[in-house]
Amino acid sequence: MSSDSSKKRKPKVIRTDGGPQEGKRGKGDVDQDVRYYSEECEVDLRDPIKDYELYRETCQELQRLMAEIQELKSRGIKDNASEIDERRIQSCVHFMTLKKLNRLAHIRLKKGRDQTHEAKQKVDAYHLQLQNLLYEVMHLQKEITKCLEFKSKHEEIELVSLEEFYKEAPPEISRPAITLSEPHQQTLARLDWELEQRKRLAEKYKECLTSKEKILKEIEVKKEYLSSLQPRLNSIMQASLPVQEYLFMPFDQAHKQYETARHLPPPLYVLFVQASAYGQACDKKLVVAIEGSVEEAKALYKPPEDSQDDESDSDAEEEQTTKRRRPTLGVQLDDKRKEMLKRHPLSVTVDIKCKDENVLHLTFYYLMNLNVMTVKAKVTTAVEMTTAISAGDLLSPDSLLNCLYPGDHGRKTPNPANQFQFDKVGILTLSDYVTELGHPYVWVQKLGGLHFPKDQPQHTVTADNSLSASHMELTVKLLRTRLQSRLALHKQFASLEHGVVPVSSECQHLFPTKIVSRLVKWAAIPFEDYAELPYTKDVIEAGLAEDTHLYYMALIERGTAKLQAAVVLNPGYSTLSPIFSLCLNWKGERTSSNDDNIRAMESEVNVNYKELWGPKPGYQLLTNQLQRLCMVLDVYLETEPHDTSVEGPKEFPQEKMCLRLVRGPMRLKPFKFNYPQGFFSHR
């Protein structure tokens, strides 16, 4: 049976796409076609669930037969061959059943896909119809919106209200019997009334034009009269010049100044007006004048047409002269920088006089493209002053006006918009040009009425008179005080360089009659040298020493002891006191970091400086601080215990009377001088 079953011809499966097969077909092919199509029909008649249950039962039966065949083969008995063949035949039958179920499943799958495809095509057709309908709806909505948004020309005309229309319009135009019930007729009537009113206004406008022409003719006649009057007035003013000079009333000179002031830019004009007003009202020693070329200033305000013609002529000349040689990029940038930093041809000078006839000359300039003001300073003394090497920076233009207000160094432009302008022409900072242009201090901008917001670039900043007036009085007082304090320091430095500490009679009571320690050196030092000193680090870290301050080194000696004092002089001296950092070289190096008494000596001059101000305004503070340093050095050396290992007398015998030599765990010395008792005590 096994050989017969193996020799059975397997049924041939023909897979077609549904089209007719060409060629001759045999009898077997006809049977297969019939069977294939009968299976398609059978799919519709069979229940898939029952087929699934048949599939499960067939699989279970196959598993059982396979297990029995394996068990019979494992026994190895020859009589079991017939049973094995029988079970094989049963298994083949089950396999045929599974193949049939597989074919039915594939047919069902194909039919399901075909049905899904047909349904999808129907959905696509319905969706296309829906889109067409939506497009038609959208088109209709647009047309409706256009109709609703239509505006007639008459809607732009501001018509009178209905109350005024029925009140003022005549009945033949208003027609209330018709227009009150029909809005369209009402609008037409209102438009007719508007036309009638405009005709009346046009006639009135023509009448006003004729009256205007008559008035203009009268004005021309009066102008001719006034123009003929001007030469007569000039001759009268010229004849009155001797009288003006005799009465000290320079009306003609002031008139010329005001005529020139018309050509000043707004910031300089505000400064000129406010400074002149302040000088006339409050400060007779304040002199204001205008310098520069008036013709160049007039040329800046030529009409645009003339300027364009001039530019075209100059461009044509430049094209002819530069055909052979074209300027390089560096030359073009230099020309752009010069144009960017160009000053106005006119400037305002302000001379501030002191009681001792010393004069501070201030010249204010206006940078037209940057919209900022700058100032240059110069000092003229009534008496020739002695030259002092250490006083070289006191009256220099770069440091004289530095920090007039706290933090105003005058190195950067106060206008934030200038940084964007500098980037275009390759300028890093304005500090490279302050020597030539002047310093753009913030107080200078305020005197000109300019106020710039911080960190916000603005290109249009107008001059404000009220801002200039509010800062004028205080700024003039600060300038005069700065000049007097620098001149006082200049005189004091000349004495200090010769080893003499000048002390006025009003301050003699602050010190004992005999001070042995002497000042032997006073010299100016740069900020870099000051920063390298080991005993000045605390001052620098506290932010009390900046590169805008002035720095000096004082050396005080007594015997073998040498006291070095590094001095920081704030530009706002004497309102802000100098700061001293001490280092004593005697039996080693002693500073505030390793000796509490050195720290106490620094406190005597840095903390208790108000005792040393002297008479107002306190210009003797620095010399009094140096004199106190000499005094406390005497106390420090005289109160030191005597070294018994060294033979001979004590190097610094005690000459000052002290109530107690030391006090407290830090063994502080008595540095406070008590007048008039003449003894020293602790604070």
TrEMBL record:
<keyword id="KW-0539">Nucleus</keyword>
<dbReference type="InterPro" id="IPR019163">
    <property type="entry name" value="THO_Thoc5"/>
</dbReference>
<dbReference type="GO" id="GO:0003729">
    <property type="term" value="F:mRNA binding"/>
</dbReference>
<protein>
    <submittedName>
        <fullName>THO complex 5</fullName>
    </submittedName>
</protein>
<comment type="similarity">
    <text>Belongs to the THOC5 family.</text>
</comment>
<feature type="compositionally biased region" description="Basic and acidic residues">
    <location>
        <begin position="22"/>
        <end position="31"/>
    </location>
</feature>
<feature type="region of interest" description="Disordered">
    <location>
        <begin position="1"/>
        <end position="31"/>
    </location>
</feature>
<dbReference type="Pfam" id="PF09766">
    <property type="entry name" value="FmiP_Thoc5"/>
</dbReference>
<feature type="compositionally biased region" description="Acidic residues">
    <location>
        <begin position="306"/>
        <end position="319"/>
    </location>
</feature>
<dbReference type="GO" id="GO:0000445">
    <property type="term" value="C:THO complex part of transcription export complex"/>
</dbReference>
<feature type="region of interest" description="Disordered">
    <location>
        <begin position="299"/>
        <end position="330"/>
    </location>
</feature>
<dbReference type="GO" id="GO:0006406">
    <property type="term" value="P:mRNA export from nucleus"/>
</dbReference>
